[in-house]
Amino acid sequence: MGTAARSLALGFSFLLSFGPVRAVALPDTLEELQRRFDNELDGVKKAKQLQKLGNAQFEREREAEKAGDFETAGFIVEKYRDNVRAAFEAVKKVHPDAEKHPGGYKQLQIHIDSGIREVNDLLSAVPEPYRPPLEIVKSDLIQIDRELLHMLFPRRPGEKQPPAKPKPERMEKES
Question: Which of 22, 32, 51, 98 has its CA 20 to 30 A from that of 76?
C-alpha cells in the first residue's frame, strides 16, 4: 500500500470516528414548504406552517415585483390566499369552537394581517390592469380575517345580540 492510499484510508477512518456525517441544513425552498403544507392533515400544524410558507411567498412576491413581473406577483398572492383558506378550513374542522380552542386560529389571524398589508403594498406598486384580481384577493383575506375574529371573540361588548327566542307558553289545564 502506498503512502497516498494510507493517507486516504487514515483520513477516511478519521472521519468515520466522528459518527455519521450530517448534511448541511439548506434553507427550505418555497416549493418544499408548499409540499409540506399541502400534505399536512392536522389543522393546527397547517396553520403554523402557513407562517413560514407565507413569509417565503411574500419574499418571492417582492422579488417578482422588483423585477416588474406583476403577473407572477399576483399569482403568488392568489396562492397565498388559497393557502389561508385551506388552513382556515383545516383548523375549523379540528377545532370548530375557536373561543375554547384558539390554537391555529391566532396564528392564522396574525399572518392574515401581514398578508393584507402585503397585498396593499403590492396594489400601490402595480399598474392598473393588474389591480382587479389583487382587489379580490384583498377582499377575500379581509373576509376571512373578519370571520376568524368573530369566531375567536363571539361575545363582543356593545354589539347587539339577536333577540332571545320567546319561550312557548304553557297551556293550563282547565278544570
Answer: 98
Lowest average pLDDT, out of 41-55, 60-74, 87-101, goes to 87-101
Asked if residue 21 belongs to a domain, the reply is no
- pTM for the complete prediction? 0.74
**So what's the pLDDT on residue 101?**
85
Q: Look up the domain containing 92 and give its range.
A: 30-152
CB atoms within 10 A of CB 15: 10
| Distance of alpha carbon 44 from alpha carbon 121, whole angstroms | 28
Distance of CA 141 to the CA centre of its chain: 11
Report yes or no: 64 and 73 within 8 Å, Cβ to Cβ.
Answer: yes
Domain count, the chain: 1
Cα end-to-end span (Å), the chain: 118
Count Cα atoms within 13 angstroms, Cβ side, for 102: 11
